[in-house]
Amino acid sequence: MNMEQTFRNQYPFMAALLQFDETSRRFKLVCGGSLISATKILTAAHCVTQNNTILDKLVVKLGMHFLSETEDDAEHNAAHNFNEIGIVTLESPVEFTDKISTVCLPKECHLEMEFYDSTRAVGWGNSKEGEENYGALRHMTGTMITKEFCIEFTRSRKIELANHMICAFPFYGGLCQNFDGGPMVLQRPVSTYGECPWIQLGIIISANGCHEKPEPDVYTRLTSFWSWIDNKVKPL
């Protein structure tokens, strides 16, 4: 797998979801996520549920580069999920800084997205199956592919690609374990779009880069969940 360590604060919207492990007596990475408002973390549904039950005692870390950093921890008090998308609600709003800010969500002009080049997948996952998670935040570049092309490459994984899913083929290697819930983002010119250089197009839900043969990674398509996300972020 070929991933590069990010610069510090390159992705200020990144969140790490951790849960206390009774065996090791320490917090372990469950999934990644992205900050979409002062109180909401976007992630994959299976990151916040187990046997159809919402997980409790999750700790959210924000503004981190290394997993070992301890500042900016936040407790959550609720989680909602639908299909393969989940939202974690923090107990109190976070304070935005140069290390912590929100990612932008897609707009109508991104609805027919099939072939965006140079998308980024971001997370703290490991390089090889069964290994410890990597200590620093890393990213990998890929390109979006058609559903038909993705189905052909993922037959062995027996994944049923729904209409609300999209795929991206990594330029080199692929994501391995514990990247689920993290964002797939696209960089935009700051001069054109003000202070929002990153737009999130998807959520990592299935990665298979632990093996030598490169395969597409599968993501939840955010444009399929506009109404659901808006309802959770701005409830009536």
Keywords:
236 residues; mainly beta; Thrombin, subunit H; 2 domains; 6-stranded antiparallel β-barrel; globular
Give a structural overview.
The chain is mainly beta and about 240 residues long. It folds into two domains: about 15-100 and about 225-235, Trypsin-like serine proteases (Thrombin, subunit H), CATH 2.40.10; about 105-225, Thrombin, subunit H (Beta Barrel). The protein has three helices and 15 strands. The strands form three sheets. A six-stranded antiparallel β-barrel has the order 10-11-12-15-14-13. A hairpin with a 4-residue loop joins strand 2 (about 15-20) and strand 3. It is globular, with a radius of gyration of 17 Å.
Spell out the CATH superfamily of the largest domain: Trypsin-like serine proteases
What is the β-strand count? Answer: 15
CATH topology (level 3) name of the largest domain: Thrombin, subunit H
Strand order of the largest sheet: 10-11-12-15-14-13
Radius of gyration, in angstroms, nearest whole number: 17 Å
- The structural domain count equals 2
Q: Helicity range of the residues?
A: under 10%
Bulk shape: globular
Cα end-to-end separation: 44 Å
Order of helices and strands: EEEEEEEEEEEHEEHEEH
* Beta-strand residue fraction: 35-45%
Structural class: mainly beta
Assigned CATH architecture of the largest domain: Beta Barrel
Query: Number of helical runs?
Result: 3
Largest sheet data:
6 strands, antiparallel, barrel
Mean pLDDT comes to 81
Q: Which spans of ≥5 residues are poorly predicted at pLDDT below 50?
A: none
